[in-house]
Amino acid sequence: MEEREAVRQGPRTWVVVALTLTAVLAAALLFVGGLVTGVVISHDAASSAAPAPAGGAASSASPTTTAGAGDGSTSGTGSLDPCLVGSWRTVEHSESSDTPQGTVTITGLQRTLEISEDGRERVTYDPTPAEITTDEGSGTIVFDGTAVYSVSTDGGRMSFELESSEGTVTVSVEGADPQTQDLTPGTGPVSYTCSGDRFVETATGFRNVWERTSS
């Protein structure tokens, strides 16, 4: 009797597993569709990263910005903070966002960054797997490609205009086939600080630390 019950319940269990994996992958793919150089561009994050009243994420981060090169002052509207010019690599990264399937978090994304004096930013993703977790499970995510932006700074905020991108994003969860989609970066603004060889980007649920590799 117990054996017959196990056989009868087996298919239901597999359905639950399949639905769970589908939810994980769906959440992950919906999430990565809103990334900009690793920044979450969900509705909530975009709203928080935009100019906000005192006490918001953007307003609290802006006064702490430090230019670590050039004349030592924060750059003006539509210009580029000279501290940012040079080559950088990711040394710390984490971001999370709420989705209909639950909270999705990505950690360990590796990238290199080239910012030129004319305000052009080139992001190159290292195809090393980063970790992705949801309320339902975990897996890996691989970004492979490049994105080119026109970037400007104003009072501790960076704004981006996407010029071009190419590449893929692949999400893998144990027990399911990897899911791949085109790399489609967003263009949401971030708050930043830059001093010497350290450059930090922040937004709601997002933090990325860069280390300078050359000027």
Automatic annotation (TrEMBL):
Biased composition annotated in UniProt, kind: Low complexity: 48-68
Region annotation Disordered: where it falls in the sequence: 48-84
Species this protein is from: Phycicoccus endophyticus
Keywords, sorted A to Z: Membrane, Transmembrane, Transmembrane helix
Parts of the chain that traverse the membrane: 12-41
Keyword Transmembrane attributed: yes
Full protein name: Lipocalin family protein
Upper lineage: Bacteria, Bacillati, Actinomycetota, Actinomycetes, Micrococcales
